[in-house]
Amino acid sequence: MDLPTLWFAIIAVLWFGYLFLECFDMGVGMHIALTARNQQQRRLILNSIGPVWDGNEVWLITAGAAIFAAFPNWYASLFSGLYLPLVIVLLALIVRAISIEYRSKHHTARWVRLWDTGHAVAALVASFGVGAMLAITTTGMPIDEYGDRVGGPFAWLSAEAVIGGLGLVFFSLVHGALFLTLKTGGEVQRRARAFYVRWLPLGILPLVLWVLIVQFRSGTSASWALTGLAAVAALIAWTLAIRNRMRASFVGMGVFLAAGVAAIFSAAYPAVLPSMIDPAFTLTVENASSSDYTLTVMSVVALLAVPAVIATQAWSYWVFSRRLSERHMPELHEILPAIRTEAPSSKTEQR
Amino acid sequence: MELDPVMIARWQFGITTVYHYWMVPLTIGLGPILVFMQWRWMRTGNELWLRMTKFWGKIYLINFIMGVATGIVQEFQFGLAWSEYSRFVGDVFGAPLAMEGLLAFFFESIFLGAWIFGWKRLPKRVHLLALAGAVWASIMSAFFIIVANSWMQHPVGVELVDGRPVLNDIWAVLTNNTALAAFSHAICGALAVGGGILLGVSWYHLWRRRRDGIDTVDEDGRVIVGEAQEIVGRDRRDRSVWIKSLRLGAVVGLIAFSGVALTGDWLGKLMYEQQPLKMASAEGACHTGTAFSILTVGDLGSQSCDDVVPVLEVPGVLSFLAKGDFTTEVPGINDLLPVYEARYGTHLPVDDRYGDYSGAEIDYLPQMEVTYWGFRLMIGFGALAAGTCLLSLWLTRKGTVPASTLLMRAAVLSIAASFLANTAGWVFTEMGRQPFVVAPNPEIEQNIFLFTAAAVSPGVSAGELLFSLTAFTLTYGVLLLVELFLMAKYVRGGVASAMPEAFGQHEDDADDHLSDDDSVRTRRSKTDDDVLDFAF
């Protein structure tokens, strides 16, 4: 395997890491609005991702930076071409991060409602945007011979973009419900489990559609085999869920996602961003990549860092592996200024 | 009205980056101080240090998340608005960014999550290590991003292939002397911010305690510590928290500012070699000479040496800043401009991809009013904050602060000075690099540089840029108010706001029990009710 191909594979792995981990974060964010029935349940849902969400998000940042380092032309064309949607994704990610951390730092009903709503909406918007971006980079955008988008600010908009966007939103919802089933107890868990079992087939439908679109365009026998594997894994995950074997179902969903992502990227290969104007303008792993020297340096870094990252992240999931229930939520304390409201007594003043 | 995409994109980068760099120095500066506090708590078992860790930890976290949230924008906006820049520098510039993600951000966020939620779930030593790991990673992230930035100031480790710089020596990029100087300068500047916030906030609390009649002073001015049981957290130990924090902050600030001066001198001397026009414009130095300008009047903004009149100059100082002696002639703007024009041309190429700037005349002089005043504000604010540290050590020698409200306000305001010094420094160094986005390295044969006018995304319209500029500015503005509101609330709440459990809300797990390992173990095995001792 040559270096650009290796880096294409590494970037696919980074995207898988992001989707597998952050899709349940995003789904959990949406379930704050969908599944919770009261204040304690909203807190429970939020705290199920409390210690880990930030580490999950780094997969996105790293995937973006890895594209920059390994395929500068891909990074430049994709990000500038998707200017408006990505600006909105960034704003949504900002709002989500702040919502998580600030929600419980002030206790008026309005404040809490504002951040809970902000969190759910931002998770929805960010999921859709990232899904649309990934769908576009695997199906195409009108770019010219320089790799620049032509046709105005919305030229990227396509049916595939919408399917990819919906694909991540729906997948996040079922994946998040599954995560809550594993991570919480009580009513939230029951509701999340019911949601997962009922909506799984529909929830993965747009994602499957996107996989198939890419297969019919440029599928290889290997990528079709991966597509088949993804379908089987989804079926097994669903069967297991019906039999209430939720951990096993989680593994099944992981295999589904891994095979699905692999099917998409291996079918798209060697294109990283197809041009819808002229196939000659398509960005590929060859014409978009950095020099072999840079890729070698980055390979060494990735080889050292990725196992360490996975080990550290696994450790943090292990530390916080216990199931949470509403009764585990610590009391919230009103923060009052440490100020004497009445005048100090004359006795202290004399001293 | 004709909108200029380059100007909008520059404003956007400037606003988002300056904003981001209000959060970053506090994160980097407060982090090591927190590690020190928690380490002291672990070693001594003294609850005083636990209170300090918890309170300053809360302030740290409120700020940290804003840095994280706005940091994502930094990672993506090169591709968004600066695609030509990304294509040009991608072979070199992407690598430190990816290293930052792989070697810093992951560990920073994972370990910080473990620290926030792991007070009772992790053994004390591991819990401290989690914080130390997160802090170390945040310092590493500063290193990598400054390596990337310094390559724009001083490109090294590359050769030109087909008009594009191609990396051929990663070690040269990582040990770029500009990067090492700028990194140490930035870390010192960040520690100064950390020290500054300790000083200002602690001063407020000591003042508040005197104002509320809790602490008083005897005829020698020595503190008589009191307590107020009706105010949560205002016990006798509370005074120790603040006086210790204040003096620690002042000492950290003084050490940091010494470091700022030393590393700043190093960085300045490099700049005289690497970007002589940046330094000349920072001096308003039109003519070659040795004198440092204390005050220059006239119209700096006119970008013409004819309109600038030096009023007060100190002979020899400029030579000292640039070369370390008092006699070397430092080249002035009038002598430098022809050198730049001869080497890099007088006009931009005629090319559609430069848009309205195609064939335009190049002004090599950075905006003099920005560089001149940016340089002076950086030094001025830094000196102000350093002076506050020194003065406060003297004023608090008898165990508390003076009762003066005016002094309290000045101490709180001095927090801003250390932030503004950082901001002014970055604005100076980035604006001083113009009109280049990648400034040429005069020490190498090949002309490796890129004009800012040629760096923006050709496919992105001015309207799109204007939308995002507005959206980011409004969002950031609102979020700044939110952060300041929460900061003020938790600051005013004092230690009790960060550790309510220590002040009687939960009688059974009062903090003093926490300091021996046995109780931690019993707590863990007690029931399954203690899954979380912290939750959002």
Structure, briefly:
The complex is a heterodimer of chains A (351) and B (536). By secondary structure, chain A is mainly alpha-helical.
Which outline of chain A best applies?
Answer: globular
Widest sheet of chain B: strand order? 1-2
H/E element string of chain A? Answer: HHHHHHHHHHHEEHH
Distance N to C terminus of chain A? 82 Å
Listing every helix as H and every strand as E from the N terminus to the C terminus, the arrangement of chain B reads HHHHEEHHEEHHEEHHHHEEHHH
The pair of chains with the biggest contact is: A-B, 94 and 101 residues
List the helices and strands and how they pair.
The complex is a heterodimer of chains A (351) and B (536).
Chain A (H helix, E strand, L loop, with lengths): L2 H32 L4 H10 L4 H18 L1 H10 L1 H20 L6 H31 L19 H25 L2 H18 L1 H14 L2 H22 L3 H23 L2 E3 L9 E2 L7 H28 L26 H5 L1
Antiparallel strand pairs in A: 1-2
Helix pairs in contact in A: 1-2, 1-3, 1-6, 1-7, 1-11, 3-4, 5-6, 6-7, 7-8, 7-9, 7-11, 8-10, 9-10, 9-11, 10-11
Chain B lengths: L4 H40 L2 H35 L1 H35 L6 H30 L4 E4 L2 E4 L2 H5 L2 H35 L4 E2 L5 E2 L11 H39 L1 H8 L8 E7 L9 E7 L2 H7 L9 H12 L23 H28 L9 H27 L4 E3 L11 E2 L10 H32 L1 H4 L18 H10 L10
Helix pairs in contact in B: 1-2, 1-4, 1-6, 1-12, 1-13, 2-3, 2-7, 2-13, 3-4, 4-6, 6-7, 6-11, 6-12, 7-8, 7-11, 8-11, 11-12
Key structural traits:
heterodimer, A: 351 residues, mainly alpha, 13 helices, 2 strands, 73% helix, B: 536 residues, two-stranded antiparallel sheet
Account of the 3D structure:
The complex is a heterodimer of chains A (351) and B (536). With 351 residues, chain A is mainly alpha-helical. In chain A, strands 1-2 form a two-stranded antiparallel ribbon. In chain A, α1 (3-34) runs antiparallel to α3 (53-70). Chain A has one domain. Chain A contains 13 helices and two strands; from the N terminus they run αααααααααααββαα. Chain B has one domain (5-276, 368-513). The longest helix of chain B has 40 residues, at 5-44. Chain B has 15 helices and eight strands. In chain B, strands 1-2 form a two-stranded antiparallel sheet. In chain B, strands 3-4 form a two-stranded antiparallel sheet. Chain B has a two-stranded antiparallel sheet with strand order 5-6. The radius of gyration of chain B is 26 Å and the shape is globular. The two termini of chain B are 48 Å apart. Classes of the chains: A mainly alpha (351), B mainly alpha (536). At the A-B interface, α2, α3, α4, α5 and α12 of A face α2, α3 and α13 of B.
